[in-house]
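Prompt: May I have another protein with tokenized structure?
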Amino acid sequence: MKLKEICWDKSVKEAVWKKGRINPDYSPDVLRWDEYGRIMMWSKYGRTDSIFGWTIESHDPAGAAEKVNIENLIPVNTYKPEKSK
């Protein structure tokens, strides 16, 4: 479930970012992987036009409907490639 129209403050973004998987070959402050194995870059937050773009989504959509809780939030890659015609 995408949580749209929410402006996350830096502390929430940082807490959710830290839930991303770390690869020891890269700085965890710059690159992490979402739970689907897609790469994300900290500086590409909110970008859907970048293969490294990411956003904050609810891991538990049922719980998110009632209350936005940091435990339910996860970082997710947002890249949506254009379909070729």
About this structure: The longest strand covers residues 54-58. The two ends are 28 Å apart (CA to CA). Helices lie at 10-17, 61-66. Residues 24 and 32 are 10 Å apart (CA to CA).
